[in-house]
Amino acid sequence: MANNRVMWRFNPPAAPHFDGLWEAAVKSTKHHLRRVIGDTMLTYEEMVTLLTQIEACLNSRPLSALTDDPEDLSALTPGHLLIGAPLTALPELSLREVPAARLSR
């Protein structure tokens, strides 16, 4: 294995401090789960929905500013790297149901 440059890293299950960055993400996920669920038992569908919402929140944390403009408050997030847009952005308003007369105001 040394010839193939394989390097083993031991991570004991009871020592989360060995892997700092991804353990911080696990800690954040557990924190949000405890805050929302408490002692409640969820169905599979409810749990998947909740984990998806927590994932969207965690992947929407700002990494850096998108532009140098101090007036622009948008930030680069992990969601931008995953899908090209923030995961918790509000959906665009559909103008199909708005009468044409109201669009010109």
TrEMBL record:
InterPro entries: RNaseH-like_sf, RNaseH_sf. It comes from the Eukaryota. GO terms for molecular function: nucleic acid binding. This is Integrase catalytic domain-containing protein.
